[in-house]
Amino acid sequence: MVDFYKAMLKQGIFTERRDFIKVPPREVFEKYQKYLDLPQGKRRDDYRWDNLDLDAWLVLKFDYTPIVEKRRRAELTPTEKATEEIQEREREFEESWEEVEKKLKELTD
């Protein structure tokens, strides 16, 4: 596929470069088709666990939470989950605040 695409670019048949990073390899696409046939929930999660290449592509393509992380979070106590959530929100706030300070500095310079 990549060789075909490069040849078409070289010959000028394709005029724009395309990003194929989110296109799965054939083996992963076949697994994805099986994945879609499974009922949502535990069976799909188990299939992702057994097929980490599929899981990696789902994370890349659809911004899914990696199955390893999903299982780790499932084992947390409610207090641990709340603590992680608070820490994440604090981190997001800090990043936003830094962006605001940067914009204010640009305006005053």
Fold blueprint:
Elements: H1 2-10, H2 26-37, H3 42-50, H4 52-62, H5 67-74, H6 78-108
Give descriptors for this structure.
mainly alpha, 109 residues, flat, 0% strand
Structural class call reads mainly alpha
Mean pLDDT: 92
Low-confidence stretches: none
Number of helices: 6
What proportion strand? under 5%
- The proportion of residues forming helix, as a percent range, comes to over 70%
H and E order: HHHHHH
Gross morphology: flat
Please tell me about this protein's structure.
It is a single chain. The protein has helices at 2-10, 26-37, 42-50, 52-62, 67-74, 78-108. It is an all-alpha fold. The relative contact order is 0.07. It has one domain (23-108). The model has no long low-confidence stretch (mean pLDDT 92).
Short description, anyone?
The chain is mainly alpha-helical. 73% of the residues lie in helices and 0% in strands.
